[in-house]
Design goal:
The protein is an alpha/beta fold. It has one domain: 3-Layer(aba) Sandwich (Adenoviral Proteinase, Chain), CATH 3.40.395. The protein contains six helices and six strands; from the N terminus they run H-H-H-H-E-E-E-E-E-H-E-H. The relative contact order is 0.17. This is Ubiquitin-like protease family profile domain-containing protein.
Length: about 220
């Protein structure tokens, strides 16, 4: 049974985030919605979508100029604006998913607990999904092709996709593909740009996602 007794697949600790090179501090709180809770209580997928209604500020954008690290909300906003809004066939898995301890469901029922946070919240027509991956204080990106059930992993530092990130990515792909198994492959090193500094991973995966989905890679 999908996700039965799923182990904790969240990554990062508060201590690690003091030197975070990738995104928002990752707490390890369990995210659950109980039947007794108010149906109007916001779940993570709703929070991620609502955050997109707030325009990015100069503070967010100046982080790139000042060689600082951008957070997951900024990554969501940029990829949504440059990739998802331009193509209804594209879906974005919110970068906030790496703060989420338990993922069990994805569907059109609003009260499903522990939902996978995506932008838009649910889609039956998407062809490809962009999946930012926060791995050891570094942002990577993967692109899932729903038809072929193949997910290609891109790391601008050429790191391998190890555990627990591999298992969490497999689960995300499985949920997006209606429970079907998906293959995860690593993109050839010579097929995309490489990062030579220690802070530009966020902007680079945003640019990379744009180029991949516009057939420029």
């Amino acid at each position: 049974m999908l996700n039965k007794n799923l182990e904790d697949l969240s990554v990062g600790t508060l201590e690690e985030d003091l030197i975070n090179q990738g995104g928002t501090p990752q707490n390890n709180n369990i995210i659950t919605i109980d039947d007794d809770e108010n149906v109007d209580d916001a779940q993570l997928d709703e929070v991620a979508n609502n955050a997109l209604q707030i325009p990015l500020s100069a503070y967010n954008l100046n982080k790139v100029i000042n060689k600082e690290y951008i957070d997951d909300v900024t990554i969501d906003s940029v990829i949504n604006k440059d990739v998802v809004q331009r193509n209804p066939d594209i879906l974005l898995v919110s970068a906030t998913v790496w703060q989420q301890r338990i993922i069990e469901n994805w569907g059109d029922e609003r009260r499903l607990p522990n939902r996978l946070p995506t932008i838009p919240r649910y889609s039956t027509t998407f062809r490809k999904a962009v999946i930012p991956i926060h791995m050891q204080n570094h942002w990577n990106v993967a692109v899932l092709d729903k038809e072929t059930k193949k997910c290609v992993f891109y790391c601008t530092l050429r790191w391998e996709l190890g555990e627990p990130y591999y298992s969490k990515l497999k689960l995300i792909c499985c949920l997006l593909c209606d429970g079907e198994e998906c293959e995860i492959v690593t993109a050839p090193d010579d097929s995309f740009l490489m990062q030579y500094d220690g802070y530009n991973c966020g902007p680079m995966i945003c640019m990379l996602a744009y180029r991949i989905l516009n057939n420029e890679v």
